[in-house]
Amino acid sequence: MQRQGFVGGDTVLRVRVAGGALLVAHLAFVAWFTLRPLDVPWVVPANLHPFAGIRADLALGGREAALRIGEGLALLAPLGFLLPMVHGRLWASPVGSLIRTCVAGALISLGIELFQTGVPGQVVDIDSLFLNTAGVALAHLVVVPAVRHSLRRRTERRRRTTVRQEEPAQGRTPTIPRVGIAP
Questions:
Q1: What are the two backbone dihedrals, phi and then psi, of residue 39, each rounded to the nearest 5 degrees?
Q2: Residue 80: inside a domain, yes or no?
Q3: How far is the C-alpha of 101 from the C-alpha of 21, rounded, in Å?
Q4: Cys-Cys link to 23, which of 47, 79, 82, 142 (CB 3.0-4.6 A)?
Q5: Which stretches of sequence are listed as region Disordered (predicted)?
Q6: What sign does the CA torsion over 33, 35, 36, 37 have?
Q7: How far is the CA of 66 from the CAs of 55, 110, 170, 171, in angstroms?
Q8: How many domains does the structure of the chain reveal?
Q9: In which domain, by residue range, is 110 found?
Q10: Exposure class string for 42-55: b at 16+ Cβ within 10 A, else e
Q11: Which of 85-94, 110-119, 134-143 has the lowest mean pLDDT?
Q12: Burial class of residue 131 (count of CB atoms within 10 Å of its CB; 0-12, 13-18, 19+)
């Protein structure tokens, strides 16, 4: 059995194109949402102390804490499955894929935080970097292994039916040696 690195020809193109379009749309939304100037009467100072913002959110109570922490987790969570979708690998190491996706999500989140330093009304928060990366990791762990498993099964089924159709129905056709005709 030969493992293909990518999903079968037509499918890989569709998956990559759809993933690329969705990734661009999501990143455009994230850029608009996080980098637009806000007109606020005051600005809180930047949070550079790890988990201080999460502790403050938890002190607000269950519902408000869940809402704020959920927003942090959900902002970049689609990257957890869109980045592997753009990559298009069907036979990839689960741990390697998770690490690559989390690192890319963390770098994108870090870039957003760095760009926010120049946007009026937006404040840098180290906890959002942690929450965004955790959201990417959770989305990857929930979606990617299941989707890859189902695509591998579908590809194997398709490969098996294709191999069966290519086999001759009754074996090799017998050949008769030809005898040359005298002049």
A1: -95, 95
A2: yes
A3: 18
A4: 82
A5: 153-183
A6: positive
A7: 12, 23, 66, 66
A8: 1
A9: 9-36+46-153
A10: eeeeebeeeeebbe
A11: 85-94
A12: buried
